[in-house]
Amino acid sequence: MSGPIPPKPAPLRSLVDQVAVITGGGSGIGRALALAFARAGARIVVADVDEAAMAETARGVRALGRAVLAVRTDVSELPQVESLADRAFQSFGAVHLLCNNAGVALSGGLERATRQDWQWAIGVNLWGVIHGLLAFLPRMIAQGPGGHVLNSASMAGLIASQGLGVYNTTKYAVVGLSETLAKDLRPYGIGVTVLCPMGVATRIGEAERTRPAALRNPPGRAQASSVQLIGRTLTAEEVADQALAAIRERELYVITHDEALELLRRRGQRLEAAVKRRTAH
Question: Which end of the chain, N or C, is surrounded by fewer C-beta atoms within 10 Å?
Fold first, then answer.
C-alpha cells in the first residue's frame, strides 16, 4: 500500500526571476497569463502556432521589462514540445511554471463528429497537456523542489453540455489527469492547478483557423452551430488573475464563475441519488 500523501507545497510568495512557459500564449488566456506572470516578475517562454500573435505577446512582455523567448510550437507534436523545452532550459537554465494552456474548441452532436474532429481536439487539448508533462516534468523534478503546473481545462471538464461532446471528452480528461497529477507531484514539492472557466472573451471560437489541413473536414460538410453559453463572459485578464492567485496558494481548482456552483451542485445531487437508488434495493 502507498503511504500518506504529503501536504500540498508551501505557498508561492514570489515569482521574481521564475521562468514561466505558456503554451497557447499568443492570445486569450495564454497572453493574459504571460503578462500577469511578467508583471509579477517572471521571465516568460511563450509558445503558439500563430507566430504573429505570439510575437505580439512577446512585445507586451518586453514592454514590462521582462525577458521573453517565443517559440512556434504545435503542442500536438511531441518533438516540437521537446524542442520548446530544450530552448527554454538552454535560454534560462530552469523552468518553474509550466502552463499547458493551448486549446481548441469545436461544437456539434457526437453523432456527427468525424475522425478528423476527434484527432484535432484530442491532439491539442489532451495530447498537448501530456506532451508538456513528458517534455518538462523530468527536468523540473531534477532541478529540485518547487515549481508548479497549470493545466487549462474548462467548466466543460466538469459539466457535460449537449453539442460539446468532443470538447467535453478532452476537458474531462484534463481534469482527471490534473487531479491525479497533484497527488503524484506532491513528493517533489510541485503544485498543480486546473483552470475551469465558463465564458471568457477569447478567440477560441475561431479555433478552426488553426486546424491543420490534414484534419479538416471534407468540403460541403455543414459547419456546426455554436453552443449558447450560460453565465457571464469574463475577460481573459480576470481569469489570469484568478489563476495566478490559485498558483500562489497552490490551489488545485480555479472555478472562475459563481454561476458554476449550481451546476456542480446539481451534478453532485444526481450522483448521490444514483448511489441511494442502488443501496435502497
Answer: N
At residue 276, φ and ψ (nearest 5 deg) are: -65, -40
Tell whether the torsion through CA atoms of 188, 67, 37 and 57 is positive or negative: negative
Beta strand spans in the chain (E): 19-23, 43-48, 68-72, 97-100, 148-152, 191-196, 253-255
Q: Backbone phi, then psi, for 259, in 5-degree steps? A: -60, -20
Whether 167 is a known active-site residue: answer yes
52 Cβ partners below 8 Å, 6+ apart?
26
Query: Alpha helix (H) ranges present in 153-214?
Result: 165-185
Catalytic residue among 167, 172, 188, 253: 167
Per residue in 7-18, pLDDT (tens digit) is 889 999 899 999
Strands (E), 61-136: 68-72, 97-100
What is the spatial distance between Cα 195 and Cα 205, in angstroms, rounded to a whole number? 18
List, for residues 109-143, the tens digit of each pLDDT value: 999 999 999 999 999 999 999 999 999 999 999 99
pTM score: 0.93
